[in-house]
Predict the 3D structure of the following.
Amino acid sequence: MAYLATPSPRYRKSYLAALREIKQTTAPTVRRPFARAEAARSFWLVDGGKYVGLVQIRVKRSSGVDPRLKNNVYYEIRPSMRKKGYGTIALKLALKMAHRIGLARVILVCRKNNVGSRKIIERNGGKLLRVVSVRGYPQPFLKYEIGL
Ligand SMILES: CC(C)(COP(=O)(O)OP(=O)(O)OC[C@H]1O[C@@H](n2cnc3c(N)ncnc32)[C@H](O)[C@@H]1OP(=O)(O)O)[C@@H](O)C(=O)NCCC(=O)NCCS
């Protein structure tokens, strides 16, 4: 069963394998696992003792692109583990963790064409707040809220 773990050398081998996958993949992979870690609490999604993906929770919402896109939660599944349900599990566990951390609601943002992420958010109760167009980005962003 998958769970969220504190990043640890215990998962070193599978984590390094995931980094190699990320480097080689042509699929969209947005963030390096430790990027902006100072602004977020980072957790690793682990299954069978192996690194599956990254979850980041920010109590203070942040945004790299536009203030309208400030959000609390980010998740990423390693390329070889995608489309197996882990993304949905990652957000479910992230919401439980965000509640434990003290948040009463979270804001999530994904690009309109990120079909997988949209499904994940909507399956976890995401309510669409608005569609945000940002100059320089051909695809609009979808901003969701989930009450915890
Ligand atoms: C988006 C992402 C997290 C999805 O993870 P995942 O483990 O594949 O998600 P799930 O297996 O839970 O899939 C949920 C649904 O989305 C679908 N899906 C997943 N990726 C998809 C894709 N690229 N295109 C179309 N559908 C997709 C799945 O088939 C599933 O739908 P179904 O049950 O109706 O078949 C993963 O592709 C990823 O890490 N992408 C890069 C980082 C990113 O975009 N993070 C989200 C930031 S908003």
Summary: The pocket of coenzyme A is lined by residues 28-30, 74-77, 82-88, 110, 114-117, 119-120 (CB under 6 Å).
